[in-house]
Amino acid sequence: MTTDNEAPYYTSCPEDKFVETTEDSARVLWKIPEFLDNSNRTPIVDHNKNSGEKFYLGEVFVYYVAKDQSGNVNDSCAFKVHVKGKLTVLIIDSSGAFEQIQRKYALA
Known about the structure:
Blueprint: E1 9-12, E2 17-21, E3 25-27, E4 34-36, E5 44-47, E6 54-56, E7 58-67, E8 73-92, E9 98-105
Parallel strand pairs: 2-8
Antiparallel strand pairs: 1-4, 3-6, 5-7, 7-8, 8-9
């Protein structure tokens, strides 16, 4: 009997996501990472956030961890979700003319 010492590996992993919103949060989508294993069995995948979930202003670290039936673990699929706010300000002068200004902001 052969011992499996190889961890599962991913065939795709999202890059960091950058989103702007005029609200206090945004739903962020990504392609779900895919993992394979040398045993040809589907690894068990755990993660801390779901695609399509609401993210509030700021940065969140998202990770996916795959474990095969022999207990080998791959925790190298990780990325950040950056949500920045976008504020629109209207400045109206005494003649009634206005200027629209957009500013980007993020919570530290």
